[in-house]
C-alpha cells in the first residue's frame, strides 16, 4: 500500500471517529437523538410518532432535516467535482464547512439552554451531512464514514464469499464468479467499524465529565484531518508537477 493510500485511509478513519463522537454527544446530551446514523434516527422518529418510551419526535425530525441540509450544502459545493474521486481543493472546502459547524456548536454550548437545543442538533447533523457527501467523493473502499450498517454488510459478505471461493478451489465447480473485495478493503471495513465505536466510547466518557463541551474532541479531530488532507493535496500537486521525482 502506497503512502498516499495510507493517508487517505487514515483521513477516512478519522472522519468515522468524528461520526461516533457526534452520535455519542447527541444521544447522551441532546435527547437521545442521533446526528450521524440516520438509519437509527429514522427508527427513533417512527417510534416517537406512536409515543414509544415518551420519545419526542421533533428532535429526530430536526436531526433528519439538518443532515439533509448538510448533504445539500456539501453536494452544492462539490457540484463541479461530483465525478472526481479523491482529495482536492473542493473537498478541503467541505472539510472547512464541517469544522465551522462543529466549532460553532462548541461556541454556542454555553449560551443555548436545554429546552432550546434544536439549534445544536441542526449544527451537528448538518456537519455530519456535509461529511457524508465528502466521504463519497473520497471513494476509499466504499467507506461512507456515517453509515456503519453498509460497511458491516460489505465486510461480512466479502468474508463469506472469500471463504466459499477458497473451498471451491478444491472442487471441480471452480471459483465463484462474484467479484471479491481485497483483504485490504475487508480490513479497512473492520477497522472503520471499530473506530466508530471507539469514537463513541471516548466522547461518551468525555460527555460524562464535560457535558456538551465534549464536542471539542471531534473539533480537534477535524483539524487534524484537514491538516493531513492539506498535506496530501500539496504532496500530490508537487508529484504531478515533477513526475520523474
From TrEMBL:
The keyword Transmembrane helix applies. InterPro entries: DUF1275. Keywords: Membrane, Transmembrane, Transmembrane helix. Pfam families: DUF1275. Coiled coil: none annotated. The keyword Transmembrane helix applies. This is DUF1275 domain-containing protein. It comes from Pullulanibacillus pueri. The chain crosses the membrane at residues 55-78, 90-112, 189-208, 214-235.
Amino acid at each position: 500500500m502506497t503512502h498516499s493510500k495510507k493517508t487517505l485511509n487514515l483521513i477516512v478513519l478519522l472522519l468515522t471517529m468524528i461520526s461516533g463522537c457526534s452520535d455519542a454527544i447527541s444521544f447522551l446530551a441532546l435527547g437521545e437523538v442521533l446526528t450521524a446514523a440516520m438509519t437509527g434516527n429514522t427508527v427513533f422518529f417512527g417510534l416517537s410518532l406512536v409515543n414509544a418510551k415518551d420519545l419526542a419526535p421533533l428532535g429526530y425530525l430536526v436531526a433528519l432535516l439538518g443532515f439533509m441540509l448538510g448533504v445539500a450544502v456539501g453536494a452544492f459545493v462539490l457540484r463541479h467535482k461530483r465525478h472526481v474521486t479523491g482529495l482536492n481543493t473542493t473537498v478541503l472546502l467541505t472539510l472547512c464547512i464541517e469544522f465551522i459547524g462543529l466549532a460553532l456548536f462548541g461556541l454556542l454550548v454555553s449560551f443555548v439552554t436545554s429546552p432550546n437545543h434544536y439549534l445544536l442538533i441542526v449544527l451537528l447533523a448538518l456537519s455530519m451531512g456535509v461529511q457524508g457527501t465528502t466521504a463519497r467523493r473520497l471513494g476509499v473502499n466504499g467507506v461512507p464514514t456515517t453509515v456503519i450498517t453498509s460497511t458491516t454488510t460489505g465486510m461480512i459478505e466479502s468474508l463469506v464469499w472469500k471463504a466459499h471461493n477458497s473451498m471451491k478451489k478444491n472442487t471441480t465447480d471452480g471459483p465463484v464468479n462474484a467479484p471479491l473485495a481485497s483483504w485490504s478493503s475487508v480490513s479497512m471495513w473492520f477497522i472503520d467499524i471499530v473506530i466508530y465505536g471507539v469514537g463513541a466510547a471516548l466522547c461518551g466518557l468525555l460527555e460524562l465529565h464535560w457535558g456538551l463541551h465534549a464536542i471539542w474532541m471531534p473539533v480537534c479531530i477535524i483539524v487534524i484531518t484537514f491538516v493531513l488532507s492539506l498535506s496530501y493535496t500539496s504532496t500530490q500537486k508537487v508529484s504531478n508537477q515533477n513526475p520523474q521525482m
